[in-house]
């Protein structure tokens, strides 16, 4: 069974200030996620599913359907605050989506095969998709998931703080814990975290999650149960979020299975702030000039 690529694109982009998921950065106006889709196709993926907010559906389809038709199968899933909330009453002041793990859960009825999960606004690199495809087709099971691990120092922004899932890895290369750390930035030659947790300084080569996960579809029922518990405890907190690392941490700590950390040589970059955009455009231009990508991805 061929794996699917699931792209998380329902975020509100509050720090960036516009809908960065459909902004063009490549030399022919390509979005960042188009490079991910291109790399996924090269690696062997045959289907991509976009998780979006329903009001953006027309914009997405106008951009992507003409480019991707005949190249890869496409699907669309809407992340809605009421999805999987049962009969719980959503607070009137809640506008923020429930988070990345809820976004994945919203794809339960659309994905029935092993799948990779990525962010729409991150550039992951060709090597990462080849390693994900190999894992999903050869090793993935109900008891074995994986994550593509990047070096923390390669994932920072010069223009503000970032949030990262910081991984602890055992001698076998398996994840032992993952913690979502927020407000990470390099200051005075050290990588510091200002979120009230310890440690407040992290090693430069710490393996971090850039939200490139590889799952068996069994993750859906597991996540659904946890989401109900999350809502019971946090539904009245307007900024609470149900992150993928919360689900992953419980999966490994309750000995339900293992999550392999697959290191990649690929360079990550992304757009967290508007000020990041020129640098992203420059890096994409360099990759095109070096022959890694064509000037027009879909010509």
Describe this structure in words.
- This protein is of the alpha/beta class.
- It has a domain at 4-143 and 211-243 and 255-289: Spore Coat Polysaccharide Biosynthesis Protein SpsA, Chain A (Alpha-Beta Complex), CATH 3.90.550.
- Helix content is 27%, strand content 25%.
- It is built from seven helices and 13 strands.
- The longest helix is centred in the C-terminal third of the chain and has 16 residues, at 219-234.
- It is globular.
- The model is unreliable at 12-18 (pLDDT under 50).
Secondary-structure element pattern, one letter each: EHEHEHEEHEEEEEEHHEEH
Low-confidence stretches: 12-18
Computed over alpha carbons, the radius of gyration is: 18 Å
Helix vs. strand class: alpha/beta
Oligomerization category of the chains in this entry: single chain
């Amino acid at each position: 069974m061929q794996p699917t690529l699931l792209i998380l694109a329902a975020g509100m982009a509050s720090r960036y200030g516009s809908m960065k998921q459909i902004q063009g950065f490549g030399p022919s106006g390509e979005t960042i996620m188009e490079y991910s889709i291109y790399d996924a196709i090269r690696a062997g993926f045959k289907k991509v599913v976009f998780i979006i907010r329903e009001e953006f559906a027309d914009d997405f389809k106008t951009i992507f359907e003409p480019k991707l038709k005949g190249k890869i199968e496409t699907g669309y899933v809407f992340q809605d605050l009421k999805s999987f909330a049962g009969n719980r009453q959503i607070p009137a002041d809640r506008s923020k989506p429930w988070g990345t793990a809820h976004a994945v859960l919203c794809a339960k009825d659309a994905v029935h095969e092993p799948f990779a999960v990525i962010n729409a606004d991150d550039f992951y690199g060709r090597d990462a998709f080849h390693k994900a495809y190999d894992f999903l087709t050869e090793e993935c099971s109900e008891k074995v998931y994986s994550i593509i691990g990047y070096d923390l120092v390669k994932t920072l922004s010069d223009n503000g703080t970032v949030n990262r899932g910081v991984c602890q890895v055992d001698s076998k290369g398996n994840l032992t814990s993952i913690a979502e750390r927020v407000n990470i930035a390099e200051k005075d030659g050290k990588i510091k975290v200002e979120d009230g947790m310890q440690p407040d300084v992290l090693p430069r080569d710490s393996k971090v999650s850039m939200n490139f996960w590889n799952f068996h579809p069994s993750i859906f029922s597991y996540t659904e149960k946890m989401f109900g518990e999350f809502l019971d405890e946090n539904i009245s907190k307007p900024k609470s979020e149900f992150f993928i690392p919360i689900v992953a941490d419980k999966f490994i700590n309750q000995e339900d299975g293992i999550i392999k950390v697959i290191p990649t040589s690929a360079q990550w970059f992304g757009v967290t702030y508007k000020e990041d955009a020129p640098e992203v455009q420059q890096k994409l231009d360099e990759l095109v000039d070096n022959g890694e990508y064509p000037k027009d991805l879909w010509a």
